[in-house]
Amino acid sequence: MNKSAFYALSYGVYVCSSWDEGRPVGCIANSAMQITASPATVAVSLNHNNHTNKCVKETGYFAIAVLGEQADPKLIGKFGFSSSKDTDKFDGTPYAVRGKLPVIDGCVSWFACKVVDVMETATHTVFLGEVIDCDTLQADAPMTYAYYHKVLKGKTAANAPTYREESGTGKYVCKVCKYEYDGDLDALPEDWVCPICGAPKSQFERR
């Protein structure tokens, strides 16, 4: 099987959110799509290990925020490389309750959905949601996963459906988000942090 064929499939970058007993939770998703127009339904894929997956199952609702190319990369690091189970990802992240669900500010558009069907795979749950409300928030080009990798130099979280192990590169790699730094790490100031997830220099190791 030539797995490079999967690279031709298109992906985006989204924040999928829900509630955990009144507390907002969320994670990064890269597999979301519209399924039907009437009634309007969308699908999103979440790893079984994501706390947000559990919360969507318990509440029966989720929201999808479409990130744009101007989104702060640290937002992706915050929602993509830590768990809502023990981290309040919405602390310091501007958001509002839209369609009765927590939705981050500054996204291109958002969709609030009621779960109408679920498909389980070995590693992920695919939630099919009927759209109960949606809107656009700002004019920006929706971020593709290719843009995230090629322009922002972002890496794939282990829970993402597109994750794959990478061989050694000789570069400095962030232990949290796998961002690769090409230069001399020792030459950077001590307060330098990872541009993707905000981790300090101490969280970088040579691969």
Notable features of this structure?
207 residues; mainly beta; Pnp Oxidase, Chain A; Rubrerythrin, domain 2; 2 domains
CATH architecture of the largest domain: Roll
Distance between the termini: 27 Å
Radius of gyration: 17 Å
What are the segments in which pLDDT stays under 50 over at least 5 consecutive residues? none
- What's the number of extended β-strand segments? 12
The chain-level structural class is mainly beta
| CATH domain class name of the largest domain | Mainly Beta
Helix content: 10-25%
Could you say what the CATH topology of the largest domain is called? Pnp Oxidase, Chain A
Helix-strand topology string: EEEEHEHEEEEHEEE
Going across the major beta sheet, what is the strand order?
Answer: 2-1-5-8-9-4-3
Rounded average pLDDT: 86
Largest sheet: 7 strands, antiparallel
Report the portion of residues in β strands. Answer: 35-45%
